[in-house]
Amino acid sequence: MNSKRTLLTLLFLCFSLLAWSQQGEEGSWAEGADPEEYKTEVDSVAEQPEPEEAPAWREKVFFGAGGGLQFSSFATVIELMPSVGYRITPKVHAGVIGIYQYVRDRGYQLNIHNYGASLFARYFVVQQFYATAEYEQISYGFAVPGRETNRQWVDRPMLGAGYFQQGSRGGGFFISILYDLNYTNSPGYPYNSPLVYRAGLIF
Predict the structure, then answer these.
(1) Most buried among 7, 123, 142, 152, using CB within 10 Å?
(2) 115 in helix, strand or coil?
(3) Residues 6+ apart with CB under 8 A from 155
(4) How far is CA 94 from the centre of its chain?
(5) Of 201, 55, 198, nearest to 133 (Cα)?
(6) Cβ distance 62 to 87 under 8 Å?
(7) DSSP secondary structure letters along 79-99
(8) Considering the domain boundaries, does residue 154 fall inside one?
(9) Contact 91/124 with Cβ under 8 angstroms?
(10) For residue 10, is it left (φ>0), alpha (ψ between -120 and 50) or beta?
(11) Distance (Å, rounded) from C-alpha 20 to C-alpha 193?
(12) How far apart are CA 19 and CA 25, in angstroms?
C-alpha cells in the first residue's frame, strides 16, 4: 500500500515537472520565435553600411565682411562691404559685394550716402595668391553749388591681385589691390586714384 502511494506520488511529480518545463520553453520566445533566426536578423541590420553623405552645397558658400574708414580735412568716409560668394571649384570663386558709404562733406556740411554693388571673380594661382576681377556700380552723391547734392551712377571695371590668409574652416583674411580701368581725372569722376584697395574677412 505504501509502495503504491509512493509510486503514484513519484509519477505525479514527474508529470508536473515535465509540464512545467514545456511551458517554460514555450514562454521563453514570443509566439515560438527561433532565437537563432532573431540573432541573424539583428546581425544583418548591424552589418549594413551607412550611406555616404554627399557634400552639402552650403559648404561651398562663404560670407565676407569688409570696410574702411577715412579722415581728411575735407571729408570723413565710412565704408561697409558685406559679401557672399560661392566656391565653383577649389581655385575659382565668384560672388557679389554690397557697398555702402557714408560721407560727411566738411566743406558743404552735408551727409551723403552712396550705395551699390560689385560682382567679383577670383582665380587662385597658388594656394594663397589669386588674380581677381570686379565690376562695380555705385550711386555716388556729390555737392553742387546752389544745390544740396547731385547724384550719378559710376561704373568701375577693375583688375588686380590679392592675398588670402586661410584660417579655420575655410575662413580667413584677404587683401586685394585693383586697377580702375575707367579711371579719369575729370572733375565729374568721384575717385581721385585708379588704385582700389579691398580688405576684409571671410567666414
Answers:
(1) 142
(2) strand
(3) 135, 136, 137, 182
(4) 14
(5) 198
(6) yes
(7) EEEEEEEEESSSSEEEEEEEE
(8) yes
(9) yes
(10) alpha
(11) 101
(12) 10
Amino acid 18: pLDDT: 46
Give per-residue pLDDT as tens, 125-182.
998 999 999 999 999 888 777 667 788 999 999 999 999 999 877 789 999 999 999 9
Which grid cell is 64?
565676407
User: What single-letter DSSP state applies at residue 50?
Assistant: P
By residue range, what is the domain housing residue 116? 58-202
Beta bridge partners of 200: 66, 174
In whole angstroms, give the CA distance from residue 47 to residue 161: 52
Tally of domains within the chain: 1
Spatial separation of the C-alpha atoms in residues 135 and 41, rounded to whole Å: 62
Q: Where are the beta strands (DSSP E) in 26-146?
A: 61-71, 75-87, 92-105, 110-124, 129-144
Q: What's residue 34's pLDDT?
A: 56
For the chain, residues with pLDDT lower than 50 are 1, 3-4, 7, 10-11, 14-15, 17-22, 24-30, 54
Extract long-range pairs of 140-149: CB within 8 Å, 24+ residues apart. Answer: 140/114, 140/190, 141/103, 141/112, 141/113, 141/114, 142/112, 142/190, 143/105, 143/107, 143/108, 143/110, 143/112, 148/108, 148/110, 149/110, 149/112
> What Cα–Cα distance (Å) separates residue 193 from each residue in 82, 94, 98, 180, 190?
23, 25, 21, 8, 9
Backbone angles phi and psi of 7, in degrees to 5: -65, -45
